[in-house]
Amino acid sequence: MASSIVFYDIPSTLPINAWSPNTWKTRYALNFKGLSYRTEWIEYPDIEALCKKIGAPHTRNKPDGRPHYTLPVIHDLSTGAIVVESSKIVAYLDATYPDTPRLLPPGTLGLYQAFEDAALALTPAIGLFVIPSVPRILNPASLEYFHITRGALFGKKLDEVIPTGDAYGPAWQKLKDSFGKIDSWIRANGEESTYIMGDTICYADLFIAAYVLWFKLVLPEKWDEAKTWHEGRWEKLLENTAKYEAVL
């Protein structure tokens, strides 16, 4: 039965508004399952206060030991549950709404978690190019927060992060190779395979699509090249997942 779910996401200046790969994972999941939900947009500096207000737990600790709060978060009004982190949200949605399309086949959560760990290990190569360009699409309310927190992550100002000169070529090739690694996982099911499970889409594919869409939305000038990689796999993936891109 359809649910009324509040989904907390981070806004932008883009026409589609949604942009973050972490929250896109949850949006894709909600749309894939056909669940009723509404989005509440929360700027970066307001995430901690929002989480404390609704009782959402922190996801990790900051270097100084203070709790760190992140999105995505969902509040399921039909059960009262408040769930944080995309992988936990997926497990919750499949368990709570078994009569909707499953995001992960029964008994594969452990395998998915191993996949996610392997896939996340490839994302720094993407983030090296995309993260420094995110400020161009953020609202003024989130700009300072993003510059400070991501600058601390890299140990330098964001405008100094994107590789230039002799460093650009190897870094760009590493990004392409990261996509190539995922392409090889998909091709393990056969050269004509479309998804991680062959011809059947599952949450692992939506996870990948979230990062591909992030790349496309933030770096459209680079997308023209990237969409041709691996026989156009990434453009085709976004075409196949476009039906799950509704921003409600």
TrEMBL record:
GST N-terminal domain segment(s): 10-101
Xref: Pfam families: GST_C_7, GST_N_2
Gene3D superfamilies: 1.20.1050.10, Glutaredoxin
Protein known as: GST N-terminal domain-containing protein
Naturally occurring in which organism (per UniProt): Mycena alexandri
